[in-house]
Design brief:
- The protein folds into three domains: 168 residues, Rossmann fold (3-Layer(aba) Sandwich); 152 residues, TPP-binding domain (Rossmann fold, 3-Layer(aba) Sandwich), CATH 3.40.50; 182 residues, Rossmann fold (3-Layer(aba) Sandwich), CATH 3.40.50.
- It has 547 residues and is an alpha/beta fold.
- A six-stranded parallel sheet has the order 3-2-4-5-7-6, with helices on both faces.
- Helix 1 packs parallel to helix 7.
- Strand 2, helix 2 and strand 3 form a beta-alpha-beta unit.
- The protein is built from 23 helices and 19 strands.
- The N and C termini lie far apart (53 Å).
């Protein structure tokens, strides 16, 4: 039976805070605004930590970072008008990543709506297209039920962001507090269709060259244990992207990364779990023409498939994977298939050794990852915020547990890193948190090192500083023979910016300076930035395109 408290009246901000606390929320990310004062007062009263940033976009990205690392709701509060619109990119990112973010907006008073109050703006039409739910509280009394609904919707498959705004007069007025002191749970996810499951079992059970491609939907569904058991027991190679990285450890015999192109093209059956066939999979073209594709996820996608699929398994992902493992047991031996892929994997890794040991100055970006590998602990949380440099990270950083990797995801919004790193370190204070970023990305949220310093959050940033927008400069020059709007100041001392904000800074200009600088940054116990000057002539060998 749910615990109860004596019925009493409370102001709207306290009603907001009570419902957040009932659902287990412990952090509110925000940038101060008068429309939010009553919510702050409520959070202070119930013990929810208020973590303030230097830009609302970062508050939104921090909420998403909290959601990503905990797989629970991440909550931010954005003041009315420009506060909410400043956070829109973070909300769109959360939608693209399926992150259960709850955005609380301030709003001009309802009693004077349409008369030109300060920062009066109707947020809901803007937010409706990028959230699962966007609503305005129409009275103080309806606030508790509205919070409960929003939190439930954010966590139900497909997980994603929700938005509520609260007119100033409603959050400062009083209403009866609910007697239920516990938050409700999301509805249970149904099982996959039996007929589709039988078809998938048949395909997987007779496959000669099966492969698994898993993405963020696997992570949100908590399906990592079942996926690992399926791949290990049936001898199926697995490739991971997005938040699925680490759901099968990088040293598991079934895990592969470098041989992905060949494996997907040559597979006779591909089990695709929690990842859409978008640009990252060539809109389905990453698979062979004869590959039979089995899709699995918590819910059916909203967009149509770019190619035909053989079976669709929508429902509770852990039980779906368990049923596939049991049903497909005893099929063909995949040892020769695994050996062939392992040979390609080994060959490609051997081909990277020259770049990893490159002695040039300015540095090759790959040299950074060679040194980082010796410094990062097994459970380190690595956050990517950049273009080419983070593309290298996606190939070189090994993840060994769920939640060890974050990047902007398919929305590709730069500036996400500092907020997500802030949240990750607050959630996991005893683990290393390493933020990888380019000099371009630093311009979006570099002042958030002040946030890290003020809150005592020792994130270590590692910057590849090549003085260009590499992701744009190299392709534009290949297309046109010239580039515009693609150059930054070379060799800029971003480390000194971080030092001026109260953090630890280090400059690296030669390979032999890198390891000591990395070790010193982690040992400093302070928010840090290792500013590595890298060679602007090095371009990441990219295969995917904008469309």
């Amino acid at each position: 039976m749910a615990a109860t408290v004596e019925e009493s009246k409370a102001h709207g901000g306290r009603l907001v805070a009570d419902r957040l606390r009932a659902h287990g929320v412990t952090k509110l990310f925000t940038l101060s605004g008068g429309h939010l004062f009553s919510i702050y007062d409520g959070c202070r009263a119930v013990g929810i930590d208020i973590v303030d940033t230097r830009h609302e976009q970062t508050a939104g990205f921090a909420a998403e970072g909290w959601a990503k690392i905990t797989r629970g709701p991440g909550v931010c509060a954005l003041t009315a008008g420009p506060g909410v619109t400043n956070g829109v990119s973070a909300v769109a990112s959360a939608q693209a990543n399926g992150s259960p973010v709850v955005v609380l907006g301030g709003r001009a008073p309802a009693a004077r709506w349409g008369q030109g109050s300060l920062q009066e703006f109707d947020h809901v039409p803007v937010l409706r297209s990028i959230t699962k739910l966007a609503r305005t509280a129409e009275s103080t009394a309806e606030i508790p039920a509205l919070l409960d609904e929003a939190l439930r919707v954010a966590l139900e498959p497909p997980t994603g962001p929700v938005f509520l705004d609260f007119p100033l007069d409603h959050v400062f007025s009083e209403a009866a507090a609910p007697t239920d002191s516990e938050g409700g749970a999301p509805e249970s996810v149904p099982a996959a269709d039996d007929a589709q499951l039988a078809r998938a079992v048949e395909l997987l059970g007779r496959a000669q060259r099966p492969v698994v491609m898993a993405g963020s939907g696997l992570y949100w569904a908590h399906g990592e244990a079942e996926l690992r058991a399926l791949c290990d027991e049936l001898g199926i190679p697995v490739f991971l992207n997005g938040l699925a990285r680490g759901c099968v450890p990088a040293d598991d015999p079934a895990f592969f990364s470098r041989a992905r192109s060949s494996a997907l093209k040559e597979a006779d059956v591909a089990l695709v779990v929690g990842v859409p066939m978008d640009f990252r999979l060539g809109f389905g073209g990453a698979f062979g023409e004869e590959t039979q594709i089995v899709l699995a996820g918590s819910s059916a996608p909203e967009i149509r498939h770019p190619r035909a699929v053989a079976a669709e398994l929508y429902g509770y992902v852990p039980s779906t994977l368990e049923a596939l493992r049991r049903g497909a047991a005893g099929g063909p031996d995949h040892a020769a298939w695994l050996e062939r892929l392992q040979a390609e994997e080994d060959e490609r890794r051997a081909g990277e050794r020259e770049d990893l040991a490159d002695e040039r100055a300015p540095l090759h970006p790959m040299r950074i990852y060679a040194e980082l590998a010796a410094v990062l602990e097994r459970d380190a949380i690595v956050i990517g915020d950049g273009g080419d440099f983070v593309s290298y990270a996606g190939r070189m950083i090994e993840s060994y547990a769920p939640g060890c990797w974050m990047d902007p995801g398919p929305y590709g919004c730069l500036g996400a890193g500092p907020g997500q790193a802030l949240a990750a370190k607050l959630a996991c204070p005893d683990r290393q948190v390493c933020l990888l970023l380019g000099d371009g990305a630093f311009g979006f949220a570099g002042l958030e090192w002040d946030t890290l310093v003020r809150h005592g959050v020792p994130v270590v940033g590692v910057m590849a500083n090549n003085g260009i927008w590499g992701l744009e400069k190299h392709p534009m020059e290949a297309l046109y023979g010239y580039s515009v709007a693609a150059d930054l100041q070379p060799g800029l001392r971003y480390d000194r910016v971080v030092e001026a904000l109260g953090g630890h800074g280090a400059l690296v200009e030669r390979p032999d300076e890198l390891r000591p600088a990395l070790e010193g940054a982690f040992a400093s116990g302070r928010p840090a930035l290792v500013n590595v000057i890298t060679d602007p002539a090095v371009a990441y060998p990219r295969r995917s395109n904008l469309a």
